[in-house]
Design a protein that fits this description.
The chain is mostly helical and 276 residues long. The protein has 2 domains: 4-118, no CATH class; 123-227, Receptor-associated Protein. Helices cover 83% and strands 0% of the residues. It contains 9 helices and no strands. Helix 2 crosses helix 4 (90-139), helix 3 (57-86) packs antiparallel against helix 4 (90-139) and helix 8 (193-208) packs antiparallel against helix 9.
């Protein structure tokens, strides 16, 4: 006969499995700006997180919310079993349920935040190369719209995430929005601030009549310079962080090598004095 704890464990494992299948089985699809029709009732922060992770909130928002709820119930079930094993008191069981539900909710959110952060870093790394391609297309005599479409086709396989965001910009421009507005909206959705800066460059170039290709090239150089500075800063921080483990690991061995022979000689000398 199946005990209640066994039934709770089976339910928890089943809920966790379904949540994992939902989270890991979804493929990013961010072509075009998301609609608000399928996001009614969802928190704004949650919508922004789903979008920055590379998914469509209007299509995947409620699916991810279901996965989070299932993960919370799975954690609550495991917390119930753990509290029952520790002590069968109502307050302990209630604490186990609350803590388990919280952990079950936090874990998938942390996973989604990790995906969003990794995607933003990928966009930032690829943006300078995209600007180089856009500059070359503009220098070849193409208009901004034609150059933008050419770059999308060029980076479609090598930089799919950036190409997806650029397609979203193209869709917004095609429905009548200005380049600066479309790029700023994409920057807000994706978390990549370089889109906003590019929109400002396009606005200034249109206002003052400056050469757009040279401005884009200068922006690409500035992005690379900032990346090199960030790499140097991380290298300096890592060297400082490595200092403490090296001291903790090497100092005992060094002291043993230096003081160990002296201690042995002192022990032998004391033994000789005692024998005399």
């Amino acid at each position: 006969m199946i005990t209640p704890n066994a039934m709770v464990a089976i339910f928890s494992l089943l809920a966790a499995s379904v949540a994992a299948v939902i989270l890991l089985g979804r493929r990013p699809a961010t072509v075009g700006p998301p609609s608000r029709d399928g996001t009614a009732g969802l928190p704004r922060g949650f919508i922004r997180l789903v979008r920055r992770a590379g998914y469509r909130p209007d299509r995947e928002g409620w699916t991810f919310m279901l996965a989070f709820i299932l993960a919370g119930f799975a954690g609550a079930g495991l917390g119930f079993i753990a509290s029952e094993a520790i002590e069968r008191r109502p307050e302990v069981v209630l604490l186990g349920l609350i803590c388990g539900f919280g952990v079950g909710i936090v874990l998938p959110i942390a996973w989604l935040r990790g995906r969003a952060g990794q995607r933003v870093r990928t966009l930032n790394v690829d943006f300078a190369m995209m600007l180089d391609l856009l500059q070359l297309a503009l220098l070849g005599g193409k208009s901004l719209s034609a150059a933008w479409s050419t770059v999308i086709e060029s980076i479609r396989d090598g930089m799919p995430q950036l190409a997806s965001e650029m397609r979203a910009v193209r869709v917004e421009v095609s429905v009548g929005r200005g380049w600066d507005e479309a790029l700023e909206a994409t920057s807000e959705r994706s978390g990549c601030e370089d889109f906003k800066f590019l929109g400002r460059i396009l606005e200034q170039s249109e206002r003052f009549g400056t050469d757009l290709s040279h401005a884009i090239g200068a922006h690409a150089d500035s992005i690379r310079h900032e990346e090199f500075q960030a790499i140097e800063e991380r290298a300096h921080r890592e060297s400082v962080r490595m200092l403490f483990p090296m001291i903790l690991l090497l100092l005992p061995a060094t002291l043993l090598l230096l003081i160990g022979p002296l201690v042995l000689l002192l022990i032998e000398a004391l033994d000789g004095v005692t024998a005399d």
